[in-house]
UniProtKB/TrEMBL annotation:
Domain Cadherin: start-end pairs: 134-242, 243-347, 348-451, 452-561, 576-671
InterPro entries with a match to the protein in the record: Cadherin-like_dom, Cadherin-like_sf, Cadherin_C, Cadherin_CS, Cadherin_N, Protocadherin/Cadherin-CA
Superkingdom assignment: Eukaryota
Cellular component, GO annotation: photoreceptor connecting cilium; plasma membrane
Protein name: Protocadherin beta 15
Annotated TM spans: 688-711
Any one GO biological process: homophilic cell adhesion via plasma membrane adhesion molecules
Organism annotation: Papio anubis
Record's keyword terms, sorted: Calcium, Cell adhesion, Glycoprotein, Membrane, Repeat, Signal, Transmembrane, Transmembrane helix
The keyword Cell cycle belongs to this UniProt entry's keyword annotation: no
UniProt keyword annotation of Disulfide bond present: no
Length: 787
């Protein structure tokens, strides 16, 4: 609840505003205009712009409009000329019935600022209805003994017009017995009475036919006639007399059909048929829609139709009592209809604004008017809206209310409000009307896109294919429409050396990220960049997020042996003393792997050995150790092939070859290779072979030239034969050097070379040549070596 000190100033402001409005209205009395009924549609009524003291343009600028009490569209305001014109023909009798004067109340509503001017339109009557009698023929039974001057009431004619246009006079056709006297009742209505001028003689004339004419006061006058049949009766000298000349009753408008309204009673001093009384309604103010029924025998008046106070609030009846002798008496019945609370309050919207932009200050949403057709306490109303909505009602002039916002609205919190306006009257029981208004809140670009995460971590395995989808970022915008459409982009990297444009790309519509090229873990393990999300509002709002890409290692690198060095030169020989104990560390194979993780976990394995079981390789560190004691029977030269394998999937491996030489001790100065002595002899033999081969090639070349000349001269071809050379025997070569056939050599040769460990020079010594097998024309085989 608000503090009392804050609520009272606001109430005082409202009271002051209402007081000022009342003062303003009091200074401008309602203007009255008049128009004749049945005037053609579009006829000029008044110049409102001049009467209000406003320019013609001000009426359109201030949204002027005419509002009638019953929401009828009888009048129209021409905003171009400021004239008030008729929107339709007006029928005074339909609008007001017998009520005179006939006044239409309406208001001129101006907005920006709000002003209301009250006015009245007097609809003047024209003589457009002729008097009509309720019956085509009236029958009067008059005793022959009636004295001169006896008055016989006649049913009066009904004219829908009012004032001077209503019935003003009655006259009767010429005759020798009667004349008509026109009487005026207290309410101004005129009715006829037949007055006997000369005595009647039934034996002379049993009946008479007269014509009664009702004439109104219009110009020109209109008239209506009825036939009167007069039956002359025998003597009946007492007319019925009512107990009351006027019966006044009150009936609630919600009385059920068939309920008793009043019972009239008359008596006749005569006896027999002349004393039997029957009742009838001689006049009713609402003959067209008569809601009452009179019992001719009992005089009871009952309802036969529902009453409605808001339509007709009173009824006047003339009751006639007739005896069997033709005499009659008359009384009047006045029925007042009492109002009950049977009408629900009504609401009519004058203006409605929807949607309303969010973040706007106090804004008028709707202007409406309320009313209740009941009267008194039943017509008083209370207007309110439900709690929990950011709206409030402000009462304007008379029964006009304004629905306004309490402050700025936030579409992201709620985009639509259903406002229920409740109008409750103060009657018993209380009736209420509810009217719902849907208010939409339009969007303003006041929310930047928000990423689902402040940072993203993406994983991609190296050696990926180009344009590979590696992940996505996502941002949402709480706005709607184009204000919520998000576009993604790569922001310039903070590291100027990072070639971001060549590494990744982003789909601007959905934030999908793609690797533009194959990534190499060994070159780039991870990189970071920032992505931006921008909406399409005005002005544009944006946000950014960090993306970290981790490159996952793949087993794409084989182990590389650092020791012993595998460079194609003469192998390095490890010396092993024959006195070494089991487990003696001979050497250690050292290898690395360019991968990481388990892809770089290396294991060592002895793949081949000259003498299995003599040496072993430790699987985890590559150490080569003796497995047992060495003996004199063990060969002096050993060759070990060690397999180095990583733990990737699939695993990759490399091999290296170790040459071991068993020696008696490390103090021997000369440690030549066992093949050093025969190598000198093989070098001499190789020189001889080279000289012979060179001579053979030269001879073959010369022979070929001669054969070519001979073929050209003799035009015949000869085939040249080529001999084969035998392959010399020799020991199994250590290292082979391949010499391709170039220059004058027609074949490729392989030579076994060795760099002696104890020599002071690095000169190669050529040993015996190894001639390859002659390859067939269809296939080739690897050279075979003799041991």
């Amino acid at each position: 609840m608000e503090p009392t000190g804050e609520r009272f100033p606001e109430q005082r402001q409202v009271l002051i505003l209402l007081l000022l409005l009342e003062v303003a209205l009091a200074g401008w009395e309602p203007r009255r205009y008049s128009v004749m009924e049945e005037t053609e549609r579009g006829s000029f009524v008044a110049n409102l712009a001049s009467d209000l003291g406003l320019g013609v343009g001000e009426l359109a600028e201030r949204g002027a409009r005419v509002v009638s009490e019953d929401n009828e569209q009888g009048l129209q305001l021409d905003l171009q000329t400021g004239q008030l014109i008729l929107n339709e023909k007006l029928d005074r009798e339909k609008l007001c019935g017998p009520t005179e004067p006939c006044i239409m109340h309406f208001q001129v509503l101006l907005k920006k600022p709000l002003e209301i001017f009250r006015a009245e339109l007097l609809v003047r009557d024209i003589n457009d209805h002729s008097p009509e009698f309720p019956e085509r023929e009236m029958t009067l039974k008059i005793p022959e003994t009636s004295s001169l001057g006896t008055v016989f009431p006649l049913k009066k004619a009904r004219d829908l017009d009012v004032g001077s246009n209503n019935v003003q006079n009655y006259n009767i056709s010429p005759n020798s017995h009667f004349h008509v006297s026109t009487r005026t009742q207290g309410d101004g209505r005129k009715y006829p009475e037949l007055v006997l001028d000369t005595e009647l003689d039934r034996e002379e004339q049993a009946e008479l036919r007269l014509t009664l004419t009702a004439v109104d006061g219009g110009s020109p006058p209109r008239s209506g006639t009825v036939q009167i049949l007069i039956l002359v009766l025998d003597v009946n000298d007492n007319a019925p007399e009512f107990a009351q000349a006027l019966y006044e009753v009150q009936v609630s408008e919600n009385s059920p059909i068939g309920s008793l309204v009043v019972k009239v009673s008359a008596r006749d001093l005569d006896t027999g048929p002349n004393g039997e009384i029957s009742y009838s309604i001689s006049y009713s103010s609402q003959e067209i829609n008569e809601p009452f029924e009179l019992s001719s025998l009992s005089g009871e008046i009952r309802l036969i139709k529902k009453l409605d106070f808001e339509t007709i609030s009173s009824y006047d009846l003339d009751i006639e009592a007739s005896d069997g002798g033709g005499l009659s008496g008359k009384c009047s019945v006045s029925v007042k209809v009492l109002d009950v609370n049977d009408n629900f309050p009504e609401l009519s919207i004058s203006s409605l604004t929807s949607p309303i932009p969010e973040n706007s200050p106090e804004t008028e949403v709707a202007l409406f008017r309320i009313r209740d057709r009941d009267s008194g306490e039943n017509g008083k109303m209370i207007c309110s809206i439900q709690d929990g909505v950011p709206f409030k009602l402000k009462q304007s002039v008379e029964n006009f209310y304004r629905l306004v916002t309490e402050g700025a609205l936030d579409r992201e919190n709620k985009a639509q409000y259903n406002i229920t306006i409740t109008i409750t009257d103060l009657g018993t029981p209380r009736l209420k009307t509810e009217h719902s208004i849907t208010v939409l809140v339009s969007d303003v670009n006041d929310n930047a896109p928000a990423f689902t995460q402040t940072s993203y971590t993406l994983f991609v395995r190296e050696n990926n294919s180009p344009a590979l989808y590696i992940g996505s970022v996502s941002a949402t915008d709480r706005d709607s429409g184009t204000n919520s459409q998000v576009t993604y982009s790569l922001l310039p990297p903070q590291d100027p050396h990072l070639p971001l444009a060549s590494l990744v790309s982003i789909n601007t519509d959905n934030g999908h990220l793609f690797a533009l090229r194959s990534l190499d873990y060994e070159t780039l393990q991870e990189f970071e960049f920032r992505v931006g999300a921008t909406d399409r509002g005005s002005p544009e709002l944006s946000s950014e997020a960090l993306v970290r890409v981790l490159v996952l290692d793949a087993n794409d690198n084989s182990p590389f042996v650092l020791y012993p060095l595998q460079n194609g030169s003469a192998p390095c020989t490890e010396l092993v003393p024959r006195a070494a104990e089991p487990g003696y560390l001979v050497t250690k194979v050292v290898a690395v792997d360019g991968d990481s993780g388990q892809n770089a976990w290396l294991s060592y394995q002895l793949l081949k050995a000259t003498e299995p079981g003599l040496f072993r390789v430790w699987a985890h560190n590559g150490e080569v150790r003796t497995a047992r004691l060495l003996s004199e029977r063990d060969a002096a030269k050993h060759r070990l092939v060690v397999l180095v394998k990583d733990n990737g999937e699939p695993p990759r491996s490399a091999t290296t070859t170790l040459h071991l030489l068993l020696v008696d001790g490390f103090s021997q100065p000369y440690l030549p290779l066992p093949e050093a002595a025969p190598a000198q002899a093989q070098a001499d033999s190789l020189t001889v072979y080279l000289v012979v081969a060179l001579a053979s090639v030269s001879s073959l070349f010369l022979l070929s030239v001669l054969l070519f000349v001979a073929v050209r001269l003799c035009r015949r071809s000869r085939a040249a034969s080529v001999g084969r050379c035998s392959v010399p025997e020799g020991p199994f070569p250590g290292h082979l050097v391949d010499v391709s056939g170039t220059g004058t050599l027609s074949q490729s040769y392989q030579y076994e070379v060795c760099l002696t460990g104890g020599s002071e020079s690095n000169d190669f010594k050529f040993l015996k040549p190894i001639l390859p097998n002659i390859l067939s024309q269809d296939s080739r085989r690897k050279p075979e070596f003799l041991e």
